[in-house]
Amino acid sequence: MGELWRRISYLFNRRRLDSELESDMEFHREMATRAGRNNFGNTLRMREQAREAWGWTWLDRLLQDIHYGARILARSPGFTVLAVLVLGIGIGVNVAAFSFFNMVALKPLPVRDPASLVRLERRSSDSYTSEMAYPSFAFYRDHARTLSAAMAILGVPPMQIDDDLQPTSASFVTPNYFTELGTPAAFGRLFTPALDDSPASQPSVVLSYELWQHRFSADPAIIGRTIRISKRPATVIGILPYDFASLGGQHPALWMPIAQQPYFIQGSKVLTDWNDSTLHMWGRLAPGISSKVAEQDLRALTDEIRKQHPNAVWDNEFIQSSPGGHLQIMQPRMYEAAVIVGVLTLLILAVSCANLGGLMLARAVAREREIGIRIAIGAGRSRILRQLFTESLMLASLGSAAGLALGCVTMRVLLSLPDTPQWVSAVPDWRILLFTAVLTFLAATFFGLAPALQIARQRQQKTIVRQILVAAQVAASCVLLIVAALLVRATQHLIYTDPGFGYEQLISIDSQLGRHGYSPEAARAYLQQMQTRLSSVPGITSVALVRLPPLGHTISNSTTQINGRTVTIYQNWVEPGFFTTMRIPLITGRDFMRGEKRAVIVSESFARQQWLGQNPLGKEIGEGAAKDTVVGVAGDAHINALNDDDAAEQYWSAQPDDMPGMVVIARASGEPGSFTPAIKSISQSLDPKTLPEIRQIKLLYRESVSHLELIATAVSAVGIVAVAMAGIGLIGLVAFTVSQRTKEIAIRIALGARPAAVLAAVLRQFSWPVLLGLIAGTVAAGFGSRLLRIVLYGVSNLDPIGYAAALIVLAAIVAIAALLPARRALRLDIARTLHYD
Amino acid sequence: MPMSFRPKEGMPPGALPMLILRVLQSGSLHGYAIAQRIHVLSSEVLAVEEGLLYPTLQKMLVKGWVVADWGTSETNRKVRFYKLTPQGRAQLKAELAGYDRMTQAIQDVLRTA
Fold it and tell me: What's this model's pTM, rounded to 2 decimal places?
C-alpha cells in the first residue's frame, strides 16, 4: 500500500523529482570527471531509464500519443468531423437501443430491495397466463414459506370520478403493495395492512400525483374529502409521489384496496371465485431463498389447490417466478425482439466502422511520408502502431461522445411520450456508460486496426483490404435495407389490406356484467333489453353480441398443425347476427341459431387449408367425443389479430353461461362517436351500477396501424442512413483510387482509351466486392429475416418485391457513389498530369 | 526490463540493491559516494555505472527502502543523501540471509561434487 502511495506521489511531483534526479546525476558526473573518468553516456536517456522505476512511463507515452493524435486530428478538421459524425450515428443508434433495453430490463426499480421482487405467473406445458384468481393468490400468500410477502394488483376498466365524461384508469391492490415497495405518500397516507385489509373499513382511494395535479388542481385539502368513483363514495386518503415506481409498469390514476373491490364494483365475486383469474401476483423472496426454491415451494401449493379446487388449476400447472424488479417483465419473445434490434443496430455500427476504415486507409497514403520519417529516426513498429491506435481510440471516443448525446436525445424523445413513468430518466447510468466504452473500444479496433497495421508495416497499399471493406459495407447495408423494405411492405400490407370486417362504423359496448356479479339469466335479460333499445335508436342499423369484441382487451388463440404447417387459430363465441353486424360475409352455409351446440363456423382460410377443394360444410373438427360440425364458412376477418395474415378463425355459438361476459357490438350509420350519450342513458336506465366501456373500433384500428407505421418509418430511416453512409464511404474510396492512379489514367487516355474503358479500369477493383457484398447481404437477410416473422405479418420473409426493391435501391446508390468520383478520371487535364513530376 | 538493467562487470543479478543497502547501513551517502564506496570496498573489482545506479536507487526509493534528503557534499554542493529506512534495514537483513543461504548452497555443491 505504501508503495502505491509513493508511486502516486511520484506521479504528482514528477517535475520536482525529475529535476532532483537530474541534479543527482549531474553531481555524479562532476565527481567522476574530477576523478579523471569520462563518461559519455546519454544523460537524457539514462534519466529516462531511471524514471522508469516510478512506473509511469506508459502514462507519459500515452499523453505524448494523445498530444500528437490531437494535433493530427486538428490538422484535418474535415476528416475529423466526418469521422465523428459517421461514428456518432453508428454508436448513437446502438446506445439508444441499449438505453431502451436498459430502462426496460436492466435498471432496477427505485423501490425497496428490488432484487428480491419476483413476478409470479401461471404456466403449464401448453398454457400461460399472467393472471391469477384472488383465492389462489390468498392461498399462496398464506402458505408460501419461501416468500416474505405477496402483493397483487387487479386492473379494472377505467372508472368514473364524480360526473366526469372521461373515465379514469383504476386498479385495486393488496394493502401491503405500497408498504412492500417502500413508497412514501406525497400527501396523506397510503394503504397499510392494518387499516385497509377489511371490506368493512372505510372506503378509501389513493390518487396518482398526475391525477391530483390535473383533476384536483394539486389541492392538498383533497385529503379526507369524499369523491364518487363509479358512483360509490370513497375518501381520498393520500397522494402517491410524483416519481412513484409501480410494479410491471402499471400506473393507474386511482388506487383502491382490493378488500373493497366488491364495494366499488357491486356484485363482484372476484375475491371468492377460484376460476376468475384477473389479478397480477408479485412476491418478495424470503432472505436467502432463490427463485428456483420458491418455484418448488409454490408447486407443492399448486398441487394442494388442485386437490381442493380441481377446476381452478390446469393439468401440470406450476407457478413461474421471474425477476420482478424492473420496468418490464421480460418474456422469451421480448428477448428475441431485443436480439433482432441488437443485430440490426450492430450492423449499422459495422457499416460506419467499415466506412471509416476506408477513410483511414485513404489517409494512410497521405501519412506514408510522415510515418516513414518517424520510423527512420528510430520509432519502433509497436510504438507507431500504438500511436495510430491511440488516434483511432481518440476518434472513437469523440464519436462515442456524439453517440451518447444522440442516444440521450433519442431517450428523451421516447420518454416524452405519454404513459412513461416519471421516475425513468434519460440520463445515462453506469451500464450505458460501460456499454458505450466497450463499443468505443470495439469500434476503434474494427476501423483502426487494419489501416494501422498496414501503415506501420509500411507496405504498399494493398487493394484487398479496401475491397474487403467495400464488401462488408455493401453486405451490411444490404441486410439493413432488405429488413427495412420488408417492414415497409408489411406495414403497407396492413394499411392497404381490407381487415375483413367493416370497422369504420362499429361501436363496442362492454357492460362487464360478469364483474358486477350478474347471473347468466340476468345477463341475458340485460343484454336482450340493451339490444332491443339500441336497435330503436335512429342511426343504429344492426346489433349483435360477441364474447371477444374486435381489438378488445383480451384475445384467445391456440395453435394447431394443418398439413404440417403451424396455424394460429383465433376463437370467438358469437350470437346470431354477428356476421351481418360486423359485415363479415358468410361465404357458404348459414349463421348460427341462438345457443346452438356442436356447431362451428370457420374462416375461409381455415377451410381452404384444412379441406382444400372439398366442401367444408358438414366436416367435423375437434378431438375425441366433443366434435363440432362445420355449418358455415365466413370470410377472413382478423378482428383480434389485425397484423396476422396467417391467422384463421373459428366461431362457436355463445352459450347461456357465456352471457355475463358478452359484449354488444353495434353498427351505426352516422358518426359512431355521436351515439355515446344515447348508449350511456340506455345503460343507466337498465342498471345504474354498470358503466359500460364504449369504444369506437375505427379509432382503435387507426391507433394500431399508426404504431406499425411508426416502427416501419423508424427502421426505414435507419436503413437509409446506413445506405447513405455506405454511399459516402464508397465515394471516398473511389475518389481516392482515382487520385492514386491519376497518372496511369492519364496515360491510358493519352493512348486513346475510350471513356468506358477508363471507367472500367478504375471501377474494376470494386465490382466484385460490391457483387459479393450484395450476395452475402441477401443471403444473410434471407436467413436472418426468419427471426422477423413475428412482426412481418402478411408478408413472407422472402418477399420478392421487398428484396428486389432493396437491392435495386442499393445497386443504384452504389452505382452513383462509384460513378460520381470516377467521372473525375475522364476530365483529367492530361497534359498537366503527365508533366507533373 | 530495458537492456541497461542487466548487470555489468559480472555483478550477479539483484546484487546491486543489496550492496547499496549494505553501504548505506553505516550512514547516509550521496549517489556518487555509494558508487565509490562499492568500488573501493570491492578492491576496485565492481564498478557501478550511473546508468545502473540511478534506476536502482529510484526503484529503492519507490519501494521505500531508502529516503533521500538534501545535504551538502564535500565539494560544497547541494546534493541528495540517501538514507536507509527501517524497511530498508529489514530488506537488507532478508537479502543477506537469502544471499548466505545461496552461497552456502553453491559452496556445498562445489565442495562435494
Answer: 0.72
